[in-house]
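Below is how a single chain appears once it has passed through the pipeline. First comes the sequence as given, then the structure the pipeline wrote out for it. We keep one example in the README because the format questions we get most often are answered faster by looking than by reading.
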Amino acid sequence: MMNGKTNNTGNIILNEGATSTTLYDARIGGDSVILFMPLNDHAAAELGHGHMYVSARNQGSATITHGNHTHDMIFAYVIVG
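Resulting structure:
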């Protein structure tokens, strides 16, 4: 952590034509907080409109609810806890 690395990050693509996407990551727990950073303009628009949220968390996975679009949305994420 002293050098800026905490090994709790990753990337995810929210696919076109879907209203939810499951994020699989062994580091996710039922009380984890998952934060997102958009990596393309479509992702930034989705986050900006407030249509994306984590609707469920389980050991090893989380469900992300989002809008149904005709393009992929790419995000980086960080898991806390």
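The radius of gyration is 13 Å.

See the next section for the split statistics.
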